[in-house]
Write a structure and sequence with these properties.
heterodimer; A: 509 residues; alpha/beta; Rossmann fold; six-stranded mixed β-sheet; 20 strands; B: 352 residues; mainly alpha; two-stranded antiparallel sheet; two-stranded antiparallel ribbon
């Protein structure tokens, strides 16, 4: 076997219950290569990598590391073979320094020579261009720095095979650029890097080769130079797709929601929304961009009456919503669908069926103390038809539906209440391309009806294509409101990082 | 070996697993009895006879099952909201205390009126006792498990204090006990069992209806699944939690009233007889389903009554009878694991 082939996985299969997560997957990564693993959610990327890092064991198939056949009994053995995994969400102890986090769990002599280790770490960080101060506490670090600590950790432990699970999901475009430089440097130094992603532009930018997975099987491995995003998408989805998102022209009406100098603090009196002022108009989609945790959730909850507001006004048709109960706000036609990271848990009750989940927003309109499910059932049937929800029936627990169908149920219910203002956060989180486009169509349909839509998004490309205007939040502050046709991704990135560029886009109401 | 979560399991298979677990528990218990020098089959037969063998024993068993059923229903409401109310004991005692206050001080009232007052006092006593952990939880975020548990001991010691102090029966010949209730304050019997069984059936039906068909019941189920979802749907979460916990404690308080009035005919610190704890087991065994609580509680009461019967019949010490009961429980509760998971032997392929 060629010794430059660092990782070789052969005919790997893995099932969970009746679900076949990986089916005869083969995959190899060479020395000095950045190899992208591309696939839709549920295509089996994470399962495959978890087997490589020793978390799961394959049901069948073989793994070779540096040409040697291995059977990992635990993640420890995989680390010993030089495999390092960098998870999407950093796993560091906040109150300790970078150095302590890095040496934690390593076999040390009883007394730790802290200065010597810090020196070694500094040298290593400098070599790879990682901006890490080993003596800095984790809680003082930005997300980008924390990620650098994770990278330094696996490098220090001698890994030469790095697995990075969607490393750019939490980064601004600028931080992503820096990360890519570091990855290049690591590859030049002879590491093999596997990057799990579903962002095509990143695959094009950083990878040497790309392996596409679909429904648990390898569709193929391509040389990045000789492929196009279109080709990759078609492979990923298994059909010829149209990647563009429609942005229908709708005459913008009057302002439905006027937010004036909105201030909110978290329970520790840390300001989370700092003097936000903006208008949302009928028949427009106002996108909200920002690194996660910039105040998006608090803004949604404040409008919905779920987050205490310290100062300012939220005017809905000239009426101040602040101080009203969430139910009163819902009655006025303001509807929110917030999709959290785990999809369920806010908005839907996982173990309940569609009928009960529809009732959540409906039951308080029924008269008397009793609840009537029969009147809701035909509604649900109609929704299944209209939104093409794949479910065995309206009495099937929603948690057993696929992610896209769960989101359709959620957004479908919000739309069903005929809202005036629709707030949707992370509506396409974790969805594949086809399902995402279904959701965009639903949202556009509402826009054409004259609904004012606040669309909190993650993917800048989507925001720029779908939204009429984009508002950028950074640490609870508006750093810009721009027309999406006139803005570049770089400008958005700078604003996400806190730079105030320009505030325009018809603030006059 | 490793475990895999079962995705779907047929009803027949669940019943089969349960039957196997009962069988295995009896086998294990047989070994134990054999070791003690008894004939296992005789003992098991006596256990059944002791529990259900005659009209009198059946009545005794049913009398024991009444507090189990009602307490389980009370606890179930709290458990549905993932509010771990293990303060059933304390709520039973405080319900009994409040009902006894009425019984001892207003015994001259007409019987129906007196019993009705006692009933509501019992509900109020238990409900208010449960209100303490509920308020602490929703406003200060305290751990309800610890608070409800500790309040049990406060309630026990409070009644002990009454027994030895202000409520001590002057005609009790110096014994630290509270006076026996007047006949007016004692629950009548229907078919030889105190009327509590009718109350229990009524409570089961009412709570089943509340949970399945009313808005409040819907809110309770949603909050039990996800507090965030409930907030997003505009529910007043704190309000619902507090109301439901008052109901939970209040129903336990009714048990206190029924036990003090229908069984003990007085108040004492062991009026609850451990039902508050035993009901946690029956509630879980019933899978938080109101309709299942009745048969589970009757079987459990049978186990308790049959257990005490074989003690006298075979001269088995109480501790040994407790071991038998625990073995049976251990297997039945343990079978839950096999309903949820299945074990798979590591295959040769996997070892590669």
């Amino acid at each position: 076997m060629h010794k430059d082939i660092f990782v070789k996985m052969e005919n790997i299969s893995k099932s969970f219950g009746t679900v076949r997560a990986n089916d005869a997957v083969s995959f190899e990564v060479r020395k000095g290569e950045i190899h992208a693993l591309l696939g839709e959610n549920g295509a089996g990327k994470s399962t495959l990598m978890n087997m490589l890092s020793g978390i799961y064991k394959p049901d069948s198939g073989f793994i070779y590391i540096h040409g040697q056949k291995v059977t990992f009994q635990s993640p420890k053995e995989s680390i010993q073979m030089g495999i390092g995994m960098i998870h999407q969400h950093v796993k560091l102890v906040e109150v300790q320094t970078a150095r302590d986090n890095i040496i934690m769990g390593l076999k040390n002599s009883f007394f730790v020579k802290k200065n010597k280790i810090s020196e070694e770490l500094r040298a290593k960080a400098r070599h790879f261009g990682l901006a890490v101060d080993p003596d800095k506490k984790i809680y003082n670090m930005s997300i980008g720095e924390k990620q650098s600590v994770e990278i330094l950790k696996v490098l220090y432990r001698g890994a030469d095979i790095l697995i990075m699970d969607e490393p750019t999901a939490v980064l601004t475009p600028q931080e992503t650029k820096e990360l890519f430089v570091i990855m290049r440097k690591m590859a030049e130094d002879g590491c093999a890097i596997i990057i799990i992603t579903h962002k095509l532009n990143e695959v094009m930018e950083i990878s040497d080769r790309v392996t596409v997975l679909r429904h648990g099987s390898t569709v193929g491995t391509l040389e990045t130079q000789h492929t196009t995003p279109k080709e990759m998408t078609d492979l990923m989805v298994g059909a010829v797709t149209d990647l563009s998102i429609k942005r229908p022209k709708v005459h913008r009406g009057k302002a439905v929601l006027e937010i004036k100098e909105l201030v909110a603090e978290d329970p520790d009196h840390v300001p989370v929304l700092k003097n936000l002022s903006f208008n949302l108009f009928e028949g427009e989609i106002l996108g909200v961009a920002g690194v996660s945790g910039s105040g998006q959730k608090e803004l949604c909850e404040a409008v919905a009456g779920l987050y205490p507001v310290k100062n300012g006004e939220i005017l809905y048709e000239k009426e101040n919503l602040i101080g009203m109960s969430p139910r009163d706000i819902i009655r006025r036609g303001i509807s929110m669908s917030f999709i959290p990271e785990d999809r369920l848990g806010m908005g839907l009750v996982a173990s309940m069926d569609m009928v009960d989940n529809f009732l959540l927003k409906e039951y308080h309109n029924q008269k008397g103390p009793l609840i009537r499910r029969k009147t809701i059932a035909p509604h649900c049937e109609e929704m299944i038809q209209r939104l093409d929800i794949r479910t065995p029936g309206i009495h099937h627990p929603v948690k057993q539906l696929s992610g896209g169908n769960i989101q359709k149920v959620l957004i479908g219910r919000e739309i069903d209440t005929n809202p005036h203002v629709l707030i949707t956060a992370y509506a396409v989180r974790g969805l594949d391309i086809g399902a995402s486009h279904n959701i965009y169509d639903l949202i556009n349909e509402q826009k054409q009806k004259g609904v004012g839509i606040l669309f909190i998004g993650e993917d800048l490309d989507v925001l720029m294509e779908l939204c009429d205007r984009i508002m950028v939040l950074c640490e609870g502050e508006i750093t810009g409101i721009v027309n999406s046709e006139e803005v570049t991704k770089e400008e958005l990135g700078l604003m996400m990082a806190g730079e105030k560029i320009k505030i325009e886009g018809g603030e006059a109401s | 070996m490793r475990m895999i979560q079962r995705t779907n399991i047929s009803k027949q298979k669940i019943i089969l697993i349960r039957l196997i677990s009962v069988f295995l528990s009896l086998m294990t218990a047989s070994l134990f009895l054999q070791f003690m020098g008894h004939h296992p089959i005789d003992v098991f037969a006596s256990l059944a006879i002791g529990a259900f063998g005659s009209a009198y024993r059946l009545r005794e068993t049913l009398t024991t099952s009444i507090p189990l059923v009602v307490t389980s229903i009370g606890i179930m409401i709290a458990f549905k909201m993932k509010f771990w109310n293990i303060g059933g004991e304390g709520q039973i005692i405080m319900g009994a205390f409040a009902a006894s206050y009425i019984a001892l001080n207003y015994s001259e009232l007409p019987k129906p009126l007196l019993l009705t007052l006692m009933f509501f006092a019992g509900f109020l006593g238990g409900g208010m006792w449960a209100l303490i952990p509920a308020l602490l939880k929703v406003h200060l975020g305290t751990n309800e498990t610890i608070i409800t548990l500790m309040l049990n001991y406060v309630a026990i010691k409070w009644v002990t204090y009454l027994q030895y102090g202000p409520w001590k029966d002057p005609n009790g010949m110096g014994f630290p006990q509270i006076a026996t209730f007047e006949p007016n304050a004692i629950l009548p019997k229907v078919f030889g069992v105190h009327i509590g069984w009718i109350i229990a059936i009524f409570i089961v039906l009412a709570i089943s209806f509340l949970l399945a068909k009313t808005k409040k019941g819907f809110e309770i189920s949603v909050i039990g699944e996800s507090i965030d979802t409930a907030r997003y749907a505009g529910m007043n979460v704190k309000h619902v939690i507090v109301a439901a916990i008052i109901l939970s404690g209040g129903i336990c308080g009714i048990v206190g009233m029924m036990e003090a009035s229908g069984v003990n005919r007085t108040l004492s610190s062991n009026v609850s007889s451990g039902y508050g704890f035993t009901a946690i087991i029956t509630t879980w065994l019933s899978g938080l389903k109101a309709s299942i609580i009745i048969p589970v509680s009757i079987l459990f009461a049978g186990l308790i009554k049959g257990g005490s019967f074989i003690q006298t019949a075979y001269g088995i010490p109480q501790s040994a009878s407790d071991v038998l009961q625990s073995l049976i429980l251990f297997f039945i509760i343990g079978s839950e694991f096999f309903v949820q998971y299945r074990l798979v032997r590591r295959t040769a392929k996997e070892a590669l």
